[in-house]
Design a protein that fits this description.
Length: 370
């Protein structure tokens, strides 16, 4: 095969007489055709395309003959450009197996990677990095196809960066904490794990109602898995402070002020008290000095806004009211030569009952019916 013209030599002999006229023409022509057609032939003619050619001869005696020859080895048609069949066009972290499809008339099959040297294609190529690959082929007539090319861009062996996690609050709270996870753009599968549990798909912020740990990782389309990141939630506190306790300076009856000291638990951030059920809650700073009986209430609040129960201490031992005056009853208020007994009537709240006889007498405990 050739992509060039073919020179056809006509070797014409005549046994009887000299050949006088030789002609050639394209196509399968008859003797008569050459009477007024055809090209005068010297010893050869040039066939520029495949087909049947006719050579005619006429000898001196006027005998004419034609002979045909068929030319079919001229090939000026280049092979169709090769096509490519990669094992996948989806993102992958594996090598890509690439077949180059050359047309059947390709006698020489060539490819080059990233404009490098043309290599002979012998079979499946293993592509382990993203490249641009060109192909071309030549047929047996040395016609060269146009180049075709493919860019391999879907090999990805780079994992996404680790996701980042943030909490809606890190301050103590008795409510919930929302964890928002931000994944890099190349993450196609977004995952989180709660308290070491199974990986789950992340769609919305994670609502934590109790303390714990959230881990996150991302996976790209090629299946590369990022490093993990995590956040510890430890600021959820729904445990109220313990109840406050009281200490009174005395619980015995007294005509003095009573001082009440309130002890709050360590986690009490706000310490409050009020006097009487209808009193106003007031911040406790120092022991409370009471000049009259009342009930002291106490409560506290921790950093997370949890309130303790209310506790109270009733103070009812302050008595600043003196007993009523004693009264006297005498056994006989008439002149008598008998003894006269004097009965002293003390009010009920008297615990100490005393009398003296005469301005300068000595206070003496009174006992009935001496
Ligand atoms: Ca060809
Ligand atoms: Ca990647
Ligand atoms: Ca607490
Ligand atoms: Ca009293």
């Amino acid at each position: 095969m050739t992509n060039e013209n073919i020179t056809v030599s006509a070797n014409i002999t005549d046994s009887a007489s000299a050949v006088s006229v030789k002609k050639w023409a394209a196509g399968n022509q008859s003797v008569g055709y050459f009477a007024s057609n055809g090209t005068v032939l010297d010893s050869s003619f040039v066939a520029t395309s495949n087909g049947t050619y006719t050579v005619s001869t006429k000898d001196a005696a006027g005998n004419e003959a034609v002979q045909t020859i068929t030319i079919n080895n001229i090939d000026r048609v280049a092979p169709i450009p090769a096509t490519f069949s990669p094992s996948t066009t989806a993102p992958t972290k594996k090598d890509i197996l690439l077949t180059i499809n050359y047309t059947n008339d390709s006698a020489i099959k060539l490819y080059s990677i990233n404009d490098g040297t043309w290599e002979t294609f012998t079979g499946l190529l293993t592509i382990s990095n993203n490249v641009t690959l060109k192909a071309r082929s030549m047929d047996s007539s040395n016609n060269t196809s146009e180049e075709s090319s493919i860019s391999i861009t879907n090999i990805d062996r780079v994992a996404p960066n680790a996701p980042t996690l943030s909490a809606s609050t890190t301050a103590p709270t008795n409510g919930q904490v929302e964890i928002t996870i931000t994944y890099p753009e190349d993450t196609t599968t977004k995952q989180f794990s709660l308290n070491g549990g199974a990986w789950e798909n992340y769609t919305n912020p994670i609502v934590m109602t109790s303390n714990g740990t959230v881990k996150a990782r991302g996976i790209d389309a090629a299946g590369n898995i990022s490093n993990e990141n995590s956040i510890d939630v430890s600021n959820i506190d729904d445990v109220p402070p313990a109840n406050a306790t009281f200490h009174a300076s005395t619980l015995e009856p007294t005509n003095e002020d009573v001082t009440v000291t309130i002890t709050y638990p360590e986690d009490a951030l706000l310490k409050e008290y009020k006097l009487g059920a209808g009193g106003t809650w007031t911040t406790y700073t120092n022991p409370i000095v009471l000049s009259s009986n009342t009930t002291v209430y106490a409560r506290s609040k921790d950093e997370a806004n949890n309130y303790s129960e209310e506790t109270s201490l009733a103070i009812n031992n302050i008595d600043k009211t003196p007993p009523a005056n004693a009264t006297f009853t005498i056994s006989n208020d008439q002149p008598t030569n008998n003894n006269v007994s004097v009965t002293i009537n003390y009010p009920n709240d008297s615990t100490v009952k005393q009398f003296k006889v005469g301005e300068d007498g000595v206070w003496t405990n009174y006992t009935v019916q001496r």
